[in-house]
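User: Is it possible to get a 3D structure for a protein together with its bound compound? The compound here is guanosine-5'-monophosphate. I've pasted both below.
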Amino acid sequence: MPNRGKLIVFSAPSGSGKTTIVRALLERPSLNLDFSISATSRAPRGKEIHGKDYYFLSTEAFEKAIKDREFLEWEEVYPGQYYGTLKSEVDRLRDQGKNVVFDIDVKGGMSIKKAFGPEVLAIFVQPPSVEVLAQRLKGRGTESEEKIKLRLDKAQQELAFAPSFDHVLINDELTLAIEQAEALILEHIGQAHGEK
Ligand code: 5GP
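Assistant: Yes, that's possible. Here is the predicted structure of the complex:
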């Protein structure tokens, strides 16, 4: 079989710094990574762009895609807000030989792990504490108090999933977390290609 790209899942409570880590890793040519653009029914935030950050779909379009079995996994991550990984997206990137990075919630991460087994490296990014998480979410200034509360409640639930992942990366110092993530990925893709 030709070398198809490998899969690297990053899951974490919102505000843990996961997206910043993923962005930094995408800049490293040695990792040969590309980002799995998820579909969502939530509205774009700030400078988010359709087809780059997410495929922004209406609720109706998202539900039709569920019915048509277009998703590898999907979740109603927050009430009324769907998120999902399109089969076509993962095939597109793997066919190019890219290693595919997922920035998805813990349940989605576990679904990808189940579907692809050892091809997947699942990394849980953990904030140093829930207090730090609350500060980061408030500092971002993109969500209302009510939305922040929802995210913190969800974070508490998500932290319980950490032990199911291959690695828990504590994001206390960002530069260090990025270095650690890079080392884990290099090990995974090296192994996957039988180069160890
Ligand atoms: P945000 O609204 O902050 O962009 O994302 C909210 C949550 O949805 C994050 O935890 C993010 O990882 C998760 N998420 C994004 N895309 C997907 C996806 O395709 N599937 C699942 N299950 N979760 C996703």
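Residues 14, 38, 42, 73, 75, 77, 83-85, 103-105, 107-108 surround guanosine-5'-monophosphate (CB under 6 Å). The mean pLDDT is 91.
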